Amino acid sequence: MTPARLCLAVLLLATVLGGCIGDPDPPVAPTVDKVEILPGEYLDNRFFFVDQVDGGDNPGRNPSREIIDLSSLHVFVRQPDGVLQVEDVANMAAYLDPTGVWSGINFQTPVYQAARWREVAFDLRLDADGEMECIDLGQSLDQDQVVGICYDVLSPMDNLLYKVGDYPGRDADNRVELDGGELFFRLKLIKPEWADQSAFTFDYVRRNVYNLRRTHIDPTKFSLSIRTLQADDRDPQLDEGLIPYVRVFGLDKYNANGVGIPDNAPDLQNIYVFDLVKGLLYFPKDFAEPFNGTRTQYETNANTSGFFWDGTYLPANLMPEIYDHRVNPATYADFSTFRIDLGYTQ
């Protein structure tokens, strides 16, 4: 075979095999794992407020003059009937605290009294000023579990003003005698059974935190958007003014450098909104019901004259039902009008 014919044969063989000999493999397009989260899938019964200074407490604790001693905060969960275990605390009773300052309570009529309670660990969720936002129990509790707390309240000079509830081993002399003559430690009730839920106790739970389904998330390989569930020709990630919903819902207030100029992308660098290590999304603390906000809240989030309210999709598709104590959580998905979309690039 002549050299020319040999070269031609090699070229033909390379073509059959899909390329010239020695060529690198064609690049493989990255894959994206997609996750969808409905608004009603927030982490229920996991994050709790200690009191309701801006809510139902009347008159409520004055946080500038009445300061919770965080080192004195303890959380207890009622246990099923049974034999007292070593880690249990015997005889505790839980009460509503409608004033927020542990006064005016009839301690002879607890909401719950039980023979077995157990102290549980928790994390403190702090804001940018180092103030407590809420407590994180680390996992969502069942609807019928009961939670009570106790803590001390101090003056700005660190003087004890009053105690909320009793801590076992320290406040034994403060126990109350209930029917039958037994003595019970007192706790402030922050979570009743579902059947005993009221608008007041319902508001102790923080309902704007979502599980991002993964932990230790690489921000360069992660995307998040909020979209409508309507079927029309408009981009579902944008409102009628072409503003991304991720901005309207308060997740885009800064640019990539942390400057207060929205850049139409979620603020993944904001550790008070995105905890990428634990895989959690916290809507802003002053946006308790992100999918049932007010016109003013959304206008403030959008931060532009191009935001429109009247006659648009958003005000017609709010979801108050997912923040209503009278609605069964099992039905929250039925009220969905928006969705949070996550993307993880491989």
Helix proportion: under 10%
Biggest pleated-sheet summary: 5 strands, mixed, barrel
Beta-strand content? 25-35%
User: What structural class is derived from the secondary structure elements?
Assistant: mainly beta
H/E element sequence: HEEEEEEEEEEEHEEHEEHHE
Q: What's the N-to-C terminus distance? A: 49 Å
- Calculate the mean pLDDT score and round it: 90
Number of strands: 16
Work out the count of structural domains: 2
Spatial strand order of the main sheet: 3-5-4-11-8
Short descriptors:
five-stranded mixed β-barrel, three-stranded antiparallel beta sheet, 5 helices, 346 residues, elongated, 10% helix, mainly beta
Give structural notes:
By secondary structure, the protein is mainly beta. The protein has 2 domains: 33-43 and 208-345, no CATH class; 47-202, no CATH class. Helices cover 10% and strands 27% of the residues. It is built from 5 helices and 16 strands. The strands form 4 sheets. A 5-stranded mixed β-barrel has the order 3-5-4-11-8.
Topology:
Elements: H1 3-16, E1 32-37, E2 47-48, E3 67-78, E4 88-95, E5 112-120, E6 123-126, E7 132-136, E8 147-154, E9 160-164, E10 176-177, E11 183-191, H2 199-202, E12 209-211, E13 222-228, H3 245-248, E14 274-275, E15 280-282, H4 295-302, H5 313-316, E16 338-345
Parallel strand pairs: 4-11
Antiparallel strand pairs: 1-16, 2-7, 3-5, 3-8, 4-5, 6-7, 8-9, 8-11, 10-11, 12-15, 13-16, 14-15
Provide a quick synopsis of the model.
This protein has 346 residues and is mainly β. The chain has five helices and 16 strands. The chain folds into two domains: 33-43 and 208-345, no CATH class; 47-202, no CATH class.
